[in-house]
Amino acid sequence: MRINANFSQFCAVKAEKYQWVKSPQNGVERVMLDRVGAEKARATSIVRYAANSYFPSHTHPGGEEILVLSGTFSEQTSDGIKHDYPAGYYLRSPSGSEHTPYSKEGAVIFVKLWQMSPSDDQLIRLNTADPSLWRQEKDRENCLLFKNDHEQVSLERLKPGASLFNSKFSGAEILLLSGALTSEKTRYKADSWLRLPSGYPENFYAGEEGALCYLKLGALGNTTLSSIDE
């Protein structure tokens, strides 16, 4: 299976174009934003857990990155301890990590699978509602979630009219969490997802109400899959 799998091309999925697909597990649906592979896949998705739904225990050979968008997402880790993550939590689990994910009340999460380097061994759990994680800048507030030599992940809270990019970038991925972004040709509302290849010429500007974005710079085509079942 290949969905938006050409990482040299611009692509965008607006919220009104979401196509919810049932997963193999009852009560769990997903929107496939990009995907290379079937169930064993390098994937970027929006995943919706109904109340009291879960996935069986599994490992992440290529790592997993999660941003909790609404509700409360939970997991039981390999040590048997249960953890709850309300909306706003950022989770980064390295290759080889194991958990049983579930939600008692229901949750919607943004998920990226099989996109971490084997050397990326950081386990991260950040509550982005913590004001101490945010840095004030001229036209925005910034919450750095992760950074290494290959990628940078952050939340950007833009003031009205502020430009998203202030310098050149080697590829970018955007999930618009609230507000609006506009380019020369298009206006994007909350929940829109965009992927921009290196050298993409257009900038994006926050609408009248401002904008809150998940922003990843670099490493867009990364995968640790050695073989893909398509």
TrEMBL record:
InterPro entries: ChrR-like_cupin_dom, RmlC-like_jellyroll, RmlC_Cupin_sf
UniProt xrefs under SUPFAM superfamilies: RmlC-like cupins (SSF51182)
Domain ChrR-like cupin intervals: 11-116
Domain of life from the UniProt record: Bacteria
The protein, known as: ChrR-like anti-ECFsigma factor
Species, as recorded: Marinomonas pollencensis
